[in-house]
Amino acid sequence: MSGQIIELPRRTSYEPMLSKTQLARHLGYSRRWIELQVAAGAPSIKLPNGHRRFRLGEFMDWLEER
Questions:
Q1: pLDDT in tens, 7-41
Q2: Structural domain range at position 24
Q3: Into how many domains does the chain fold?
Q4: Core vs surface per residue 9-42: b (16+ CB within 10 A) or e
Q5: Position with higher pLDDT, 5 vs 47
Q6: Interatomic CA distance for residues 13 and 61, integer angstroms
Q7: Residue 28 lies in a domain
Q8: CB 45 within 8 A of CB 53
Q9: Cα-based distances in Å from 51 to 4, 17, 19, 28
Q10: What is the CB-side half-sphere exposure of residue 35 using CA atoms within 13 A?
Q11: d(CA 30, CA 47)
């Protein structure tokens, strides 16, 4: 099996992760407002260094459900 290439599925829609500052700027809100949304359960990923990252689509879907 050596030398054989294995095809992996390709992502059809890749969405980059945004920092709190990037998300706040994009939405036109403050970083504090983003922090309040995280405290209220907004979807995010906490990295090992303690920083959070957000997918815009997931965040927007969560906001629309509220």
A1: 766 666 778 899 999 999 999 999 999 999 999 99
A2: 17-65
A3: 1
A4: eeeeeeeeebebeebbeebeeeeeebeebbeeeb
A5: 47
A6: 16
A7: yes
A8: yes
A9: 39, 12, 8, 20
A10: 5
A11: 21
pTM across the whole model: 0.76
Q: Do β-strands 52-55 and 45-46 pair in parallel, antiparallel, or remain unpaired?
A: antiparallel
Give CA–CA dist 45/41, Å, rounded.
12
- Is 5 among the domain residues? no
Is 49 part of any domain? yes
Say if 2 falls within a structural domain. no
Contact 40, 6 (CB under 8 A): no
- pLDDT for 63 equals 94
Report DSSP state, residue 5: -
Beta-strand ranges (E) seen in the chain are 17-18, 45-46, 52-55
Which tokens belong to 47? Answer: 């990295």
Residue for token pair 């997931």: 58
